[in-house]
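pasting 60S ribosome subunit biogenesis protein NIP7 homolog for the record, 180 residues
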Amino acid sequence: MKRLSEIQTKLLFEKLSEYIGANIKSLIDRPDGTYCFRVQKDRVYYVSEKILSLAESVAPENLITFGICFGKFTKSQKFLLHITALTYLAPYAQHKIWVKPSMEQQFLYGHHILKSGLGRITENTPKYQGVVVLSMADVPLGFGKAAKSTAECKHTDPMTIVCFHQADIGEYVRSEESLL
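structre below
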């Protein structure tokens, strides 16, 4: 478990700011303690400082995981956000898209969201903004990128893509081996 380098921290915070904006500070300074980000084998973990101090007593080769995996750095040094971060990012999301019940299953199979499956969208969502996708019952389903702004969504064809799929909770079943 190592601290993130300056470049890694910058990449991580840029990715997180796409979804939660300035609320990154709320992730670190929480009422239940201070949390931090650590990297092990190119995976970034979100962990409380209490658990971190306990994990430091275990040899790195014996430690499989600690905290919550937020994502990983690729070989080209890009940061990919994992679906395991959804429950921590959803409450702080600035831009959200709600999908109709008929579209939920399609999204969970990895399909993009069409205008016909769009229930609601946060006002003033810009084009290509990171969004959290929710069901109409406010259950977080995944991450996406807005393909259209809020204004464009109102006047577009029903078969037009309004949100590009990035990650969904169906990945827990489809790729459970690689989420650690």
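Residues 45 and 66 are 7 Å apart (CA to CA).
Residues 6-20 form the longest helix (15 residues).
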